[in-house]
């Protein structure tokens, strides 16, 4: 049996984590959650994510800073990091890409399209 696809979701909002977990686990993905950057950094050594979903607005260390830190870790350098953010003003997408994100999904999450969006990023289609 093949190893399930593991997705790390870094998000400080509990309701958002519940929604994403529900949408993706029903599709067979293994979801590992971290409610802040410190937790994400603590669990990274023990997991091998295939994809990272990153909230950009978090207290303490924001998603931009954490993305840059994760891209410096050799085992994560090729792992796609996808911003999930309510920052949708002009220049916000570019800011996430400059931080090292490989893609961008707007909040609020469109539950009808979310799984399809995640699958496109897993298969390298932007």
From TrEMBL:
One matching Pfam family: Response_reg
Gene Ontology biological process terms from the UniProt entry: phosphorelay signal transduction system
PROSITE patterns: RESPONSE_REGULATORY
Residues the record lists as 4-aspartylphosphate modifications: 55
UniProt keyword annotations, A-Z: Phosphoprotein, Two-component regulatory system
Record InterPro entries: CheY-like_superfamily (IPR011006), Sig_transdc_resp-reg_receiver (IPR001789)
Residue ranges occupied by any Response regulatory domain in the UniProt entry: 6-122
Record protein name field: Chemotaxis protein CheY
Native source species: Levilinea saccharolytica
């Amino acid at each position: 049996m093949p190893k399930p696809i593991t997705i790390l979701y870094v998000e400080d909002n509990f309701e958002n984590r519940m929604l994403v977990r529900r949408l993706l686990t029903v599709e067979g993905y293994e979801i590992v959650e971290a409610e802040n950057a410190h937790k994400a950094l603590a669990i990274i050594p023990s997991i091998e994510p295939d994809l990272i979903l990153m909230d950009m607005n978090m207290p303490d260390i924001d998603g931009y800073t954490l993305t840059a830190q994760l891209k410096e870790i050799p085992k994560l350098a090729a792992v796609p990091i996808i911003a999930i953010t309510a920052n949708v003003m002009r220049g916000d997408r570019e800011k996430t890409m400059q931080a090292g994100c490989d893609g961008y999904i707007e909040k609020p999450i469109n539950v009808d399209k979310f799984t399809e969006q995640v699958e496109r990023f897993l298969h390298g289609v932007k």
